[in-house]
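Quick log. Single chain, no ligands specified.
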Amino acid sequence: MLKVSNLHVSYGGIKALRGIDISIEENKIVTLIGANGAGKSSTLRAIMGLVEKAEGKVEYNGEDLTNLHTKDIVKKGIVLVPEGRKVFDNLTVEENLILGAYTRTDTEEIRKDVDKVYEMFPRLKERNWQKAGTLSGGEQQMLAVGRGLMVRPKILMMDEPSLGLAPLLVKDIFDIIKAIHAQGNTILLVEQNAKKALEIADYAYVLETGELVLEGIGSEVLKNDRVKEAYLGEAK
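-> predicted structure:
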């Protein structure tokens, strides 16, 4: 479905990604784990055309997306829920959701999708008139996910969705990810909570300093001694 080949990304003289290859199959949850600075967010941003690729190729169902503008990648159904929510603080919850559908023109269907988001996140419906900047961190994360769903994505990429949330809300976010996947969505997940990410992942990649060092079925990567020691806080 989505294939990334020999991807290189540099920031000045710093090489953030050094020739990585990843594949995301349809209707799967794929996760990227690694320490801060490993290149996880750079991978998502490069796929979306938000950072320049020094080398490499991004393909979606055989179509080359490497040099497309971000808005055109979104039109293909590939969406990023960014790290740090990035909601529009001065707009209401509902205005944020409607802006998520900016590539669409089917007004009636957009309204239906707003209502679907409210069904998934009843708290957002209760606060649909409220400025997004006044929401709690967990509510803003729900809004960011809901806004991404307004595109009707084929691939939903999520960058650190549980970052900064209380443990109870972390559980809620992972339940939401599983529910979105159950509706037929393909998910590429970057997540600092490696244990929870690997528990729900069909397939996983481990990044270290811009290079892939391990990949495999999520449950098997979770049992790997190297992963346990480096990312789960377990001694060998």
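The chain has a mean pLDDT of 94.
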